[in-house]
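tool_call: predict_structure(chain=1)
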Amino acid sequence: MTPDDDIATALDDALMPRLRVIEDQPLASRAEAYTQVHDELRQLLEGGDVPRTHG
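tool_result:
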C-alpha cells in the first residue's frame, strides 16, 4: 500500500459517513452541504497543483 492509497482510504472513510448524514437532510440543506463538500474536495485536489521548487 502506498502513501497515496492511505490518503485515499482515509478520505473515503471520512467522506462516506459525511455523505450519509447529508442525504438525511432536507433538500435545501443537502444542496448547501454538497456545495461545501465540493469546495473542500476541489481545494484539496488543487492543492496538489502548487508549483514545487527544485533545489
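agent: Helices lie at 3-23, 27-46. Proceeding to next step.
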